[in-house]
Amino acid sequence: MDRFPNAANVDFHSPLDLSKAAVAVLDAEGNISGWGASAQRLLGHAPEDVLGKPAGRLLAAAPGQRLSALCGTRKPRSTVLDLSCRNGRTLRAAVTLSPLEHLGVAATVVVAAELEALRGWEAQLALLQGMATESTVGLTIFDTDMRVVWGNVSTDLELAGIAQYIGRPAADLFPEGEFISRHHPPDEDQIMEHVMTTGEPIMGMHYRGRAPADPVREHVWSCSYHRMVDARGELLGLFEESLDITDRYRAQERLSLLVRAGKRIGASLDVRRTAAELADVAVPQLADEVLVDLPPAVIEGRQPPTGSAPGHSLLRMHGRTPEEFRTSPVSYPPSSPQAQSLGSGRLVVDASPPEAPGEEGSAPSHSCLFVPLLTRNTVLGLATFRRSSNPDPFGPEEQTLAVELAERAAVGIDNARRYTSQHAAALVLQRSLLPQHLPEQSAVDVAYRYLPADSRVGVGGDWFDLIPLSGARVGLTVGDVVGHGMHAAATMGRLRATVRTLALLDLDPAELLTRLDGLVAQDSEPHGNDGLSDEALGVTCLYAIYNPVNGRCSWASAGHPPPIVADASGSVALSALAPGPPLGLGGLPYENVDLNLSSGSVVAFFTDGVVEDRRTDIDSGIDRLVHVLTWQRCPLEELCDRALSARPPGPQADDATLLLVRTRRLDADRVADLELPPDPAMVAHARTVAERQLEAWGLSELSFTAELVVSELVTNSIRYATGPVMLRLIWDRSLLCEVSDNAHTAPHLRRARRDDEGGRGLFLVAQMSQRWGTRYTSSGKTIWAELAIP
């Protein structure tokens, strides 16, 4: 289908052309002696109606004299006349009268056409003339061999004279130019061949090159190609339209570059990557090379230095990836444009820069822009935009663009610097909140993994801990605060410290969680709008106590998943623990669950992130962990790795904490029990038994100290208790002395006066032991003391 179906109606023949105009012949008297068919079509009069009659009858007004004067001249004359049509209409016509003399017979040939049609033709002719002489659109005609035939004035100006290119191929016009539009063949000969062969015009191709009239500056043209055929439809060649769109194209490039910069610069929150992103965006569209110089403090996440001389102690960024990243020191003298830019905080243009420090071996620059990286009135560093292969100097628009890019980069670098500082602070916070090394215990072997969901900050709301307790026991805790990041970590740290404090009071698990629940509820009430209460109300916790003397483990849960136990035989079971409500809600009591564990059992304490995933339910996660624990004879570190690698790949929605514990039992020969009646005479017997036991253990060096501690503790219990007193000696990493009775009154350490006869026993115990204390049981209390083994 023809793209221009009305193109056949376009006719560039003059309406006064003899093939179209009305023609008549007048004799010497002004009578009509000839009347053509074209005259009949124009005015409607038949030949028999007008032949032999005066032509003046056809005039609509003022007959005779004017027409006679025109016919009497010996030269062709043109005028405008109002002619009467047969239907009564008046036609305003352009008329040309040409005298004709032949064999002495005087006659005048009259050619007439509608004036409006003539004016339209003259407008078309003026248009063609304007396009040839005044239009800014370059028009070039090529013959069928794709050689130059003609060019208008615009083409003549761009080529510095079209005459020298007549008859030459199109490739000679811009030898080093190229098409930058890729939706058609990039070769001009192929484009012309396609247009002449198919008749399909190709429009809007962008062409980049240097015009002969301006060989220094690079231009961009929008080019279109159209086939030309004659009246018979035979191919004449084609013509090219070219419009210089350099300014518009560069404005669009600047806009697209800013859009690209907005998407890329500063997206990484990494100082070195942000510097590389600035170079990636600006090269080669704006500059051939971009250099970024920063102070070491900015790279390390600290505040930029103030008061130092501009241009001193800078590091130049190199590399696009962390693997490639390196820095090299650079320094600029005070008189250099770089130092001027850093000192003034403004752009400095250097049209002929010398080789700068740190740039040895690089290509010489034709033009340089030195732009300070400025944010919040603070200069973070310097960006250098260099042109080496492009000889064009940086124009005003490009300078503005460079400043805009530098401002975006400065914001990105400052954000990255702040992030680096906050990340470092977060890591310090995390290290201070979580145990870095769990203390070695005879009761258990442990291994753990902590994976925060917010990998960028590196902190979360999970916590775990191992707390040495009296009697060779250990406290084990795992907790989870809703949310991630600094708020959750701060809440976690506060709760972990509270759990450790309460655990050292030797509270049983249910009692500890009850007190912790009250503290959380109380802490969240007055701070409902500080952003921390939501996390506090979403806290779960599990606390357990394991006793290696009898292998008993007691635990309680505040909304936390129960532990999974793999006994020494290899069977794995989920603990039958009914969790109480999360901390801070209150309303329901917490209950202890007791379980006897064989030596070598593995207990898995974990948070939701280990077993829960967006794509699978929690039961599937627990099944994965149970399957891993069937390998319980493997080293604990290997089990930890297997458990976490079994999770589905991809980003995790929740923090994941896993604490694996392999239980041990103390050998029976390392524990000695002695039941004593409440008789003061039994104190000496207790000392004798203690002495013999220490001698059997090879700890005779501790006999004096141990006898004194046992004597004081047994004496206090016999004095205030109403039932039997139990003495227990445990040989562990230290010597443990425990005395239990049925009294619930705890002894208090006090400083006795000079005249007091008693009150010095606990003071002596405190001075001779590493630690001492009291824990309560369901039947009374236990006073204990730890003595260091030399």
Give the helix proportion (percent range).
25-40%
Distance between termini? 106 Å
Sketch the major β-sheet. Answer: 6 strands, antiparallel
**Mean of all residue-level pLDDT scores:** 83
Low-confidence stretches: 528-536
Strand elements, count = 32
Q: What spatial form do the alpha-carbon principal axes imply?
A: elongated
Range of strand content: 25-35%
Count every helix, treating DSSP H or I runs of 4 or more residues as helices.
Answer: 20
Major beta sheet, strand line-up: 7-6-11-10-9-8
| Radius of gyration, taken over Cα atoms and rounded to an integer in Å | 51 Å
Class by SSE composition? alpha+beta
Characterize this entry briefly:
Helix content is 31%, strand content 29%.
Describe it.
It is a single chain. With 790 residues, the chain is of the alpha+beta class. It is 31% helix and 29% strand. The protein contains 20 helices and 32 strands. The longest helix is centred in the middle third of the chain and has 38 residues, at 396-433.
Task: Give the helix/strand layout.
Blueprint lengths: L21 E6 L4 E4 L1 H7 L3 H4 L14 H7 L5 E8 L5 E13 L2 E10 H19 L4 E5 L5 E4 L1 H6 L19 E2 L8 H11 L3 E10 L2 E16 L5 E10 L1 H19 L6 H12 L6 E6 L1 H4 L14 E5 L7 E5 L6 H8 L3 E3 L16 E9 L2 E10 L8 H38 L10 E8 L8 E9 L5 E11 H19 L5 H16 L8 H4 L2 E9 L4 E7 L5 E3 L5 E3 L18 E4 L5 E5 L1 H4 L6 H12 L6 H10 L10 E8 L7 E6 L5 H16 L5 H18 L4 E7 L3 E7 L19 H8 L2 E7 L2 E8 L3
Antiparallel strand pairs: 1-2, 1-5, 3-4, 4-5, 6-7, 6-11, 8-9, 9-10, 10-11, 12-13, 12-17, 13-14, 15-16, 16-17, 18-27, 19-20, 20-21, 21-22, 22-25, 23-24, 23-26, 26-27, 28-29, 29-30, 30-32, 31-32
Helix pairs in contact: 7-8, 7-11, 8-11, 11-12, 12-13, 18-19, 19-20
